[in-house]
TrEMBL record:
This is HAD-IA family hydrolase. It comes from the Bacteria. It comes from Cloacibacillus evryensis. The lineage of its organism: Bacteria, Thermotogati, Synergistota, Synergistia, Synergistales. Transmembrane segments: none annotated. One of its GO terms (biological process) is DNA repair.
């Protein structure tokens, strides 16, 4: 099935980042004892908040954590659908990796137990500079497998996976969970991993996370038509340019024409300091693309267009403008 943007399917992703525990192997890890002993029962982020412990306690906590993970690896069983997922990725030459908060040796041992050949790119907390949900971990992993981060999918079973994907501007797929509180973070939820495998073999259009609200208000026809529009981005940045871009993109506008010769100057930045200071001196097209890509990855920035639309400069008028285009 051919799925036309702005609708989406995980089957069209350029790369897959996979969590380990709960997605590929089930080890039934229970961290409640460690949280009770070292954090007073509080649901602390064990890795990120270890610095709050005294050195001796911190060392002991990491030792117990490693022992708990290894015990889980020894009793690991494959998640139903895990081998089928890997088979689909290999068959379709989709680059993938494993990115986990577990120790690498734990992942390797778990893979031995379930009889899985790990991909060349497998990361745990001890062989990568960052750990999820830090978006830098996901972006680095995508780069290492040669995939465009904006076209990647992170498949996980926990909130940290979804947070990392959202922060990195990737697609977020939740599996093996039926947790309504987390659905606002995910592009799509499959209560069972086998559901994702079925969706890969028989793709169906999914409304991307960033268009969920406009789709609920305006429906499928609006999204398809808005995606065909190319708006001309004002050549001179103003104090509201970022709001204008975000508003137009949130309504599903698919393309943005930018003068290919325009450079984002220090004076431009002073007019709108919402853009990062690192943007100064870059082409305006690069600045606009950098702004939109993590927020609206399907929005295209173009530098050639015969007749881009001159939309209202007031972002509040954009919806009415689109409506008058007979959507």
């Amino acid at each position: 099935m051919c799925i036309k943007e702005p609708f989406w399917s995980p089957a069209g992703a350029s790369g897959f980042l996979l969590d380990w525990d709960g997605v590929i192997a089930e080890t039934k890890l229970d961290f409640s004892g460690i949280r009770e002993k070292y954090y007073g029962g509080r649901r602390a982020m064990l890795l990120e908040e270890a610095f709050t412990l005294e050195p001796e306690a911190r060392e002991a906590m990491f030792k117990e954590l490693a022992e708990l993970e290894m015990a889980g690896a020894e009793g690991a069983v494959p998640v139903p659908g895990a081998f089928e997922l890997i088979e689909w990725l290999n068959k379709n030459n989709v680059p993938y990796c494993i990115l986990s908060r577990n120790l690498t040796e734990v992942i390797r041992r778990g893979a031995e137990v379930i009889g899985l050949d790990l991909p060349p790119r497998t990361w745990g907390r001890d062989n990568m500079e960052w750990v999820k949900p830090d978006p830098r971990a996901l972006l680095a992993a995508a780069g290492a497998i040669g995939a465009d981060p904006r076209r990647c999918v992170y498949v996980g079973d926990f909130l940290y996976d979804l947070q990392g994907a959202r922060r990195a501007g990737m697609r977020a797929v939740l599996v093996q969970r039926d947790e309504p509180r987390w659905s606002c973070w995910a592009d799509v939820v499959y209560p069972l991993l086998t559901g994702l495998v079925e969706a890969l073999h028989s793709p169906e259009p999914v409304v991307p996370w960033e268009y969920r609200e406009i789709y609920a208000k305006k429906g499928e026809r609006w999204l398809h038509n808005a995606a065909s529009f190319i708006f001309s981005v004002p050549g001179e940045p103003s104090p509201t340019t970022d709001c204008w871009l975000a508003r137009a993109a949130s309504l599903g506008v698919g393309g943005f024409y930018v003068d290919p010769e325009k450079i984002f100057t220090p004076d431009d930045w002073k007019k709108n300091p919402s853009f990062d200071t690192s943007a100064m001196g870059l082409k305006w097209s690069e600045v606009v693309s950098g702004f939109l890509a993590p927020r609206y990855p399907l929005a295209r920035v173009v530098t050639e267009c015969e007749a881009p639309l001159n939309a209202p400069k007031n972002s509040l008028d954009i919806m009415r403008f689109i409506e008058r285009k007979k959507i």
